[in-house]
Amino acid sequence: MKAIALTRYLPISNPESLMDVEIDKPTPTGRDLLVKVEAIGVNPVDTKVRAPKDKVEDTPRVLGWDASGVVEAVGPDVTLFNVGDPVFYAGSITRPGTNSEFHLVDERIVGVKPQSLDFSHAAALPLTTITAWEALFARLGVSAQGHDAGKSVLIVGGAGGVGSIGIQLAKKVAKLKVIATASRPESAKWATQLGADHIVDHFGDMPKQLKDAGFEQVDYVLIFNDTDKHFPAAAAVIAPQGGICSIVENNKPIPVELLKAKSAAFHWEFMFTRSMFGTPDMLEQHKLLTEVARLIDAGTVKTTLGRDLGKINATNLREAHRLLEEGRAIGKLVLTGF
């Protein structure tokens, strides 16, 4: 089958950083689905895993974690899906990725594709949606039933993939007041269209901008961009007994002592945790994606696709990685069809 893979970890400008290859088609066992991939989403984690390093793979390594497609075959223990079902999911970081014609994935982290979306628009959603949902509802404990309506959240990185869905979940599902950060007119417009009540520039003085907008403090902060840079500002604006959640790894110690006087909490969110460790609650991601599909089909939440870069091949995938590494992508990047 066709796939895009690497054997060496190279700068994205090198044509061998991602290559078109032919590999064997896998066979499902246990609770695995074999999915015929129709579209893929590309995420910052893809570029981080591919980043240059002194390592050589003995066999081609396939990256990629977002996908939508159709169930081609099922393992003997599968109970949630049937052959022919349209699905969307984010896969496991410990297994071969979705940048291939056919892909194996545990059914417990898969959802039925929203009926109202084509494969391209569906592929833009899983990884970022799971991340934002878990950060907001599982880590920070915000009510998904709207019981925290009226509370405030600052979303750092509002126009990115996770921010784009995070704004919608916070506004449309949790009923929060949403302040999103954006540094360009086009990204500010995107975040506003998705439901942000206020926009602040993360390159400026965020505490001052929040105060000027009428917020002395906020109940929650979601850091979807540069934890090292933005944690001090988050700590300054978080309300006593509030919560901060980040999805971006730090490069230096995080000064969590800034939170002590406020008894504020700090959480990490990593959407691969359940699949990586095979946690007993893996099925929660199936339930999560099922609920998100319902919200999309009901018109409550919409896809965050920013740009479709064309066919699934090495040339287009390298372009997606390049755009993400520049840090200027709005919404999600997808590729569709082999």
Automatic annotation (TrEMBL):
Would I find Oxidoreductase among this entry's keywords?
A: yes
One Pfam family in the UniProt entry:
ADH_N
Superkingdom is: Bacteria
> Where does this one sit in the cell?
Cytoplasm
The residues forming a coiled coil are none
Alphabetized GO MF terms? lyase activity; oxidoreductase activity; RNA binding; zinc ion binding
GO cellular component terms, A-Z: cytoplasm
Q: Which InterPro entries match?
A: ADH-like_N (IPR013154), ADH_Zn_typ-1 (IPR014182), ER (IPR020843), GroES-like_sf (IPR011032), NAD(P)-bd_dom_sf (IPR036291), Quin_OxRdtase/zeta-crystal_CS (IPR002364), Zinc-ADH_QOR/CCCR (IPR051603)
Q: What UniProt keywords apply to this chain's record, in alphabetical order?
A: Cytoplasm, Lyase, Metal-binding, NADP, Oxidoreductase, RNA-binding, Zinc
What Gene3D superfamilies does the record tag this protein with? Medium-chain alcohol dehydrogenases, catalytic domain, NAD(P)-binding Rossmann-like Domain
Domain Enoyl reductase (ER): residue ranges: 13-335
Family, per entry: Belongs to the zinc-containing alcohol dehydrogenase family. Quinone oxidoreductase subfamily.
- Quaternary context: Homotetramer.
> Which NCBIfam families does this entry report, sorted A to Z?
adh_fam_1
This chain belongs to which protein, by name? Zinc-type alcohol dehydrogenase-like protein
Origin species: Caballeronia sordidicola (Burkholderia sordidicola)
